[in-house]
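Entry details:
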Amino acid sequence: MEFEYDKAEMEERFELAYERIAGIPQEHILDDNFQSYFSFVSDFLMFMKETYRFVESGELRTVSLEKLQEHNHKLYEDILPEHYEQSYANPTYAVKQLGQEHGAMLAFLYTELRALIAYAYESRLMETVIRLELFLEIYGLFLCEKEEGGTLPAPESVRRTLYWFFSDYSELAADEVVAAQIDADRDFAVRIIMESDLSDLRYLYYFGEYISEHELRQARHLLSMSQEQIDRMAQTYTEGYRKGFELAGKPLHKKKTVCVYYRIGFERMIRKAIQNFENLGLRTTMFRAAVSAFQNKSVDKVGYYGATVNKQYDYDHREDKALFFDAKYCSRRLEVLHAAYEARKQQAAEYAGPAVVETFGEIPFEPQDKKESLKLDEAQQKLQVKFQMQSGMLMREYINYEERSFTIIAFPTPHIGELYEEIFEEIVRINTLDYDEYSRIQKKIIDVLDKSEYCVIKGMNGNRTNLRVELCKLKDPSKETKFENCVADVNIPVGEVFTTPVLKGTDGVLHVSHVFLSALEYKNLELTFRDGKIVDYSCSNFDDEKKNRNYVEENLLFHHETLPMGEFAIGTNTTAYVMAKKYDISGILPILIAEKTGPHFAVGDTCYPHQEEVDVYNPDGKCIVARDNEISLLRKTDPSQAYFNCHTDITIPFEELGAITAVTADGIEYPIIEKGRFVVEWCEALNVPLESAFA
């Protein structure tokens, strides 16, 4: 299904809307504060018209780099941290100027209108016009009330107008969400990457994303690398993707598309990766990170994106859908999503899965929790959990998870500091460590773990972790194993063994002094487990304990009442650990690398959601049988209760790790790690980086 419209009619609506908008700043009918708001937003929208024509005319591709930089800055300057305190996008400022109820909604409206930046660059006329008309409809409510002798329209009438906009255009939004992931003809970003002269950095400004000095430095650094280095980076990434299918026995030959997620600045590597994927028979799709409340906006971006303009802005608007999120709207969204997938079911069946390039290095973000921000109430939170489960089940009706795979790799950005280029080379080295050596070493650890009934994990140096993790039983140890030997395929770099814990009997406290999860910082994060489920939680980010609990509940539990321990793993990549210590970047490593630098525990789904029936084998030929827990098994009787649609890894660093001990049914103890060092025979090589660094 392609969402079709009459272009001539839409162009007419475009011009009519702008003719009306152009006159608003000259009108002085509303009270001063509201007139200032509507005049300011009208000026922004007129700049969006200028931007739309700038792109359509082709002038975007002919002007100087300096002109592009000036235009790009103007698009985003209003929400930059230095200007945000007096921006109508800031709920606190908007409420101060416009009142609690109207201010929050008008801040939301302006934020939604900022999606026009993306639509201008992609020449998406209909998405532009409907938002212009929404703005005029809201303005009309204020104008009519004033002309009839009142002051302000009832807040409910404004909210209902917003509600019906999101309900009425759900079909358009659903089509875009589905198509952007699986339809390779939606190739806006791919064409920029493949057709541009990447040595001319003007191309960075063709996406319509915010470009800072960091993206420029990133692109320049990749330009300075040899083709051999670029090929090696891309090959590690795409070969990991291919291996993911091969090792799981999944049919890559049936697939036709792969969706690439990445941060702007890596185009030289991504171009080579696209060519590699083509050699595998796959066309590349890409979608822009969320810009509209129709999508799941968050601090942690998914898709392709440029610089983060202002994380506080992203955080302030993460739950804007509270304005219209109710049971009727959810039902409508599920209905149109189903229609969108049904219309593209062949493309969905041919979708191979995502290939993700993560980045790290930005200044740690400590969010300010604002009372003026829109927030889901308790009923909406429960509805959100239900909607996520139902939409996930719907997607899996059309995208068979037993046939798809993925890969993830990570690189630093220049935010990491003066030694960026040096750290970048170190990460490239870590991403390409010897696959076979780690496979052999990790097998030795797994052989010990397979003897055990449970593991005991204890912290040290102030770490309060004290956990017992119950493990599954093996029917035939000669052919079966409890732990996956994770090397550089879907999860780059090498360096972990992991399992799905048995929930009953998994008890105790998990504590980590400092960790970043999904771009958010946690201080003294502590989770208490009983029979594998979280029964208590806290952190020390705020002085107010209630705020601490709300922070964990919202951003780690995602409004679930509890989450199970879905994974227990032992990271073995001591080379990465030492590198992080050398450059003092342990606190900002992405979880992809951080999880390899110590034991970690995931809360949420297991590592095998919706793929439990697919046999998975280690390099030694043994089948990994620990793919289920008591909750995921509910898929056989009540699928709606079997999954949480989240999986968050929490790592204990080696300097806080007192011991990991495997214990047999007879009570025999086999130490795996003692005082931060591996003690399993034949695993001494893992301690070499630690000893040389901390001698």
